[in-house]
């Protein structure tokens, strides 16, 4: 008899935990409407997270309509989206524009030892721009 009550109590608790959860779905794209796979999506204030699939689609459960989801991906600015009454989202992420301070060029070339000199290691801009000298 006690086993029945324990089973009923566990079933009731599982129902109470899942009650109130809202399943939202959507797609994440860039400005050119290309789907972005692998975008990290987190429900703010919780540990619930997911990521987009190859087609940029996702599905996640949020606790209520006041929840917010945060999207992040390398090379794009993070975005926070309030859920509200919507259950399907089309989200556009913007690229993070950052200028490079320095550029390092690394090249490898085979050459006979007697043809190598110090100049091969330290080249000037003119030599880099001149395709014939390479």
If you had to describe this structure to a student in words, what would you say it looks like?
The structure is a single chain. The chain has 134 residues and is of the alpha+beta class. The protein is 16% helix and 26% strand. The protein is built from two helices and seven strands. The chain has helices at residues 2-18, 125-129; strands spanning 22-29, 40-43, 49-51, 57-62, 68-72, 79-82, 88-92. A four-stranded antiparallel β-sheet has the order 3-2-5-6, with no helix packed on it. The protein has a three-stranded mixed β-sheet with strand order 4-1-7, with no helix packed on it. A hairpin with a 5-residue loop joins strand 2 (40-43) and strand 3 (49-51). The chain is elongated, with a radius of gyration of 27 Å. The N and C termini lie far apart (88 Å). 11% of the residues are buried. Residues 118-122 have low confidence and may be disordered.
Overall geometry: elongated
Give unreliable regions as ranges. 118-122
Side by side, the strands of the main sheet go 3-2-5-6
The CA-CA distance between the termini, in Å, is 88 Å
Percent of residues in helices? 10-25%
As a whole number of angstroms, the C-alpha radius of gyration is 27 Å
What's the pLDDT, averaged over the residues? 78
Strand pairing plus helix content: what structural class?
Answer: alpha+beta
**What fraction of residues sit in β-strands?**
25-35%
Annotation field: number of helices: 2
Secondary-structure element series: HEEEEEEEH
Largest sheet: 4 strands, antiparallel
Give the tally of β-strands: 7
